[in-house]
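Running this now, will post back.
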Amino acid sequence: MLSPNIETFLGCEADFAEARIVLFGAPFDSTTSYRPGTRFASKVMRAESYGLETYSPYQDLDMEDAKVFDSGDLELSFGNTEQALADIEARAAEILAANKLPFLIGGEHLVSLGAIRAVHNKYPDLHILHFDAHTDLREEYLGARLSHASVIRRAWELVGDDKIWQLGIRSGMKEEFQWAKEHTHLYKFDLKALPQALATLKDKPVYFTIDLDVMDPSVFPGTGTPEYGGVSFKELMEAAVAGCGLNIVGCDIVELAPTLDNSGASTAAALKILREMLLKLEEPFISGPESV
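Update: finished.
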């Protein structure tokens, strides 16, 4: 008997009931300020994931031993930003209600706000670890308060002062950098402040958001607002794995625009980051004498 054609991320084939992590895609890029295309990321990543091995030689762990459920992409309104965020929040809340970890695949960075709202509702003492090239701290962009340029400012309105750690930042308005001095922990240009962040965030509930444009466009050109001076792939991978060792209660990767890199290299980088993050999050459950 033939089976239905159901495409998932490679190795993310657990049933919902047994899964500890639930992936979902948010194909939304309606507030993109420069080049659109992030709405295609999750679909392309699923298709391209089959060029990746389930086994990670970096961590000696295998996705075949993980329990990850891929719930597919949301169908989001491109003309109604608040409705799109509400739909993302509802999916994240459903996952959290089942005591599972929501892992969001963007989409532009604004999609993170919907998931952060849901996670903050369950964990009022939420802290945020944020890797990015951009501050994302604008009060508004072209009159819109809901924008990928203001997503971390909106998140701050939920969690408050001293609960957001921003690393890798190398672009933003002067006013954003000045505002951050009073309200967030912002570290420019690289990820070297990560050990300090990890020590401070230890045992706290953390939402981990990675804008993939934190990587230098020489290695990750497939993004809407490329910003030179970024980190290498290996630097991001190692930092992402370290971040996933915290008490992560929600996370995402965003801002891959696969059609802007026809080589497929940017998608391949995003997939490897995703695999390594998932494996680190699953490590307490799959490591041991029977692991690969």
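The helical segments are 41-48, 81-97, 111-122, 151-159, 174-183, 194-201, 233-243, 265-286. More later if anyone needs it.
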